[in-house]
Each structure stands twice: as structure tokens, then as C-alpha cells.
């Protein structure tokens, strides 16, 4: 990703230089057409050169800031940027509410530091528990595949990206993340990881996301009501039994 950013910055700088050169050429051509003096031409060229230097300096400053940020990240000195608040149910619509809750429970299970992240050592423990231990380099590569903010650890959103990429078939066969998705207790598809994309597409066609969401909420509410009714019956039975003994 750093190389892509660098390429974009260099391309932008080249465009700025080309636009500056074009502006300078137009100024010179206009000066000749209107019979401007040599002094006027020189002044116009100097102005164009100054403007080009200003734009180039600005591009250099942005590129330098990016490179400094990358260096701080590599050295572990960068402060992680605050992640935007997101709604997993709307952003990851291919998963049901129950699947997302299962993923959240798994995430919290291995977030032993209770800081909202799975770091390198916690990921190491997770892979060992799943029966697929990884090397230190392998663990770092796993995090790098979904580490969008370059903080060297997995947020819950980045954890969900693992299963999103697995469902979309975007992970290599030898990827540690694909191994994690296959071995976890969360089934991304009843047909396996490779068939997950078709499986989710079929679900979307059969039932809209909105109606599915509402149906799952209603099912959870009904379940809570049923449990509450059972608790009331147990309390009533206990009171009757207690009164029978006290008479």
C-alpha cells in the first residue's frame, strides 16, 4: 500500500510539473503574439516558475509526511489513528445478525487484553487454539492483509474483513487468514469458503437484507419473552412450594 501511495504522489508531482510547464509555454506564446517586451516575457516566466515551485513544494511536503508516517509505523512509534464508528450490520450485509454476533463473541474471546483489539500475541494464541500455529512472520502477514490503519493489530471491523474476504474468494489458498476462516467455529457458508459467495448471493436474492434484519430482531424479542415467561412460572411454582412448607 505504501508503494501505491508513493506512486500516486510521484504521478501527481509529474502532473503538476507538466501543468506548470504548459502554463509557462502559454504565457510565452501570448507574449510573442501581443508583442510583449523581453522583460515582460521574463516576468511572466518567472511567475509561472514560482507558482510551479510552490505547487511542487506542497506535493513534496505531502509525500514527506506520508513517508514519515510509514517510517513511524514500521518503527512502532506512530500513534494509531482513531477508527471511524461503524455499524457491522449495515456495512457487512452479507452476514446475518447471528453470524456477526458469533464473530463478535469469538473476537472478545481472544481479545484477552480487553482493549478492543487482537494483537500479534493474541492472534498467535488464536491460531494455536485452532490447531494451525503460524510463524512470527506469518502472523505479521496475516495482520497486514486486513490492517487498514497500519496499527499492527486487528480491530473488530478488520476481524470481520477476514470473513468478508473469505466469503468473496479474495484470499489466497495459502493465506493464514483463509486457514483461520476455515478452522473457526463460524461457518461463512454451509458450502465451504469457496462456495460462500454464491451462497450469500442466493440468500440476498431470496430475502432482502431489511426484512431479514427485522425477522431476526423479532425472533430475538420472542425468545426473550419466552424466557421471561418461563422465569415467571418458575418463581410462581417456587412461591407455591414455599407456602406449602410454611403452613
Layout of secondary structure:
Layout lengths: L1 H32 L4 H38 L12 H4 L5 H14 L9 H10 L6 H11 L9 H13 L7 H8 L12 H11 L2 H38 L1
Helix pairs in contact: 1-2
Describe this structure in words.
- The protein is an all-alpha fold and 247 residues long.
- Among the domains are: 88-183, Orthogonal Bundle (Recoverin, domain 1), CATH 1.10.238.10; 193-246.
- The protein is 72% helix and 0% strand.
- The protein is built from 10 helices and no strands.
- It has helices at 2-33, 38-75, 88-91, 97-110, 120-129, 136-146, 156-168, 176-183, 196-206, 209-246.
- Helix 1 (2-33) packs antiparallel against helix 2 (38-75).
Structure described in brief:
This protein has 247 residues and is mostly helical. The chain has ten helices and no strands. Among the domains are: 88-183, EF-hand (Recoverin, domain 1, Orthogonal Bundle), CATH 1.10.238; 193-246.
Structural class category: mainly alpha
Q: Oligomerization state of this entry?
A: single chain
Q: Provide the succession of SSEs.
A: HHHHHHHHHH
What would CATH call the class of the domain at 88-183? Mainly Alpha
Main sheet makeup? none
What would you call the shape? elongated
Kindly state the mean pLDDT as a whole number? 74
CATH topology of the domain at 88-183: Recoverin, domain 1
List how many beta strands DSSP finds.
0
